[in-house]
Amino acid sequence: MSEKVRLGGMALANGVLVHGPNAWACAVRADDGAVKVASGYKSIRSAGVERRLLQGPVRIAEVFALLPRVRRALPEARLPFERPGVLAAMAFGTALVQLARRAESVPALAQELVGAAASLAPAALAMRGSELAAYHGAEHISIGTYEHDEPRQREHERCGTHLVGPLLTSVALANAVAAKLPAALRPTGRAGATLGAVAVSMEVFGWMVRHPENPIAKALARPGREFQRRFATAEPTPQQLEVAEVALAACLE
Fold first, then answer.
1. Are strands 35-41 and 8-11 parallel, antiparallel or unpaired?
2. pLDDT (tens digit, 9 = 90+) per residue, 59-75?
3. Of residues 179, 162, 201, the one with CA closest to residue 8
4. 53 and 199 Cβ atoms separated by less than 8 Å
5. Dihedral (CA of 47, 50, 55, 58) sign
6. Long-range contacts: 116-121, Cβ < 8 Å, 24+?
7. Distance, C-alpha 29 to centroid of its chain
8. Alpha carbon separation from 231 to 8, 12, 132, 163, 184 (Å, rounded)
9. Rounded to whole angstroms, what are the CA distances from 41 to 13, 170, 253?
10. Backbone angles phi, psi at 27, to 5 degrees
11. CA 205/CA 56 separation, integer angstroms
């Protein structure tokens, strides 16, 4: 078996972005039915970051730094958050979070847990049954089949949805602590708490990937697995799988 490149990906509303340690490629289905592709090398590379707690935030920055480049190289690409349903869900989720935090009779930790779940639910509903979910499934099938040298299903063990459990928990705990700060310091405290929670969650996620049979890892992965199966992915069509395969091949090349 040849050595495999560690790959990640992102579903678009009309295509798939695939990226490795150094390179990226994006393929989309244009309105005229043609498959269009663009690729290049990364400007930010988390693989070179040695401090473990910084690796998670840098990985996120690495991916989001690609989006403007994808937009410039492939104007036909429709990014996930550009869909009206997703934008409306994000706004609704933000409002629910604020309402949860104003419930003074509820303990701070409970407020944050309710707020975190509320911010996630509308986005899940907006994604369900959409082409975005189907392209997410296509992304998983193409990358998983490449990694395992056998046909795979639409769920992937390294999908970012597995961050749901550790991320919601760590963000809620961190923000509950930040809520105890004086009012003037709370915005800065929440920002720092969120950044720290993301770093910790990425470390926990990495541990989960390395120890998939551990009972704690299984418990932490379950919310993300259910979210992935019920909301975040759908069975792709052959045409959507073709787009994912084009992106994969271009990234590896």
1. unpaired
2. 778 888 888 999 999 99
3. 162
4. yes
5. negative
6. 116/168, 116/171, 116/172, 117/168, 118/93, 119/93, 119/94, 120/93, 120/164, 120/168, 120/227, 121/93
7. 21
8. 19, 15, 11, 15, 38
9. 23, 33, 11
10. -125, 140
11. 10
Q: What is the DSSP string of 89-142?
A: HHHHHHHHHHHHHT-TTS-HHHHHHHHHHHHHHHHHHHHTTSHHHHHHHHHHHH
- Check: pTM over 0.85? Answer yes or no: no
- Interstrand relation of 35-41 and 23-29 (parallel, antiparallel or unpaired): antiparallel
Residue with tokens 């690609």: 66
Local structure of residue 82 (DSSP, 8 states): G
Amino acid at 132: L
Rounded CA-CA distance 9/19 in Å is 6
pLDDT tens, residue by residue, 106-165: 565 556 655 666 666 656 665 665 788 899 999 999 999 999 889 888 888 788 777 777
Backbone torsions φ then ψ of 200, nearest 5 degrees: -65, -40
For the chain, the distance separating the N- and C-terminal CA atoms, rounded to the nearest angstrom, is 18
Query: Residue 27 corresponds to which amino acid?
Result: A
What is the sign of the dihedral through the CA atoms of 142, 146, 151 and 153?
negative
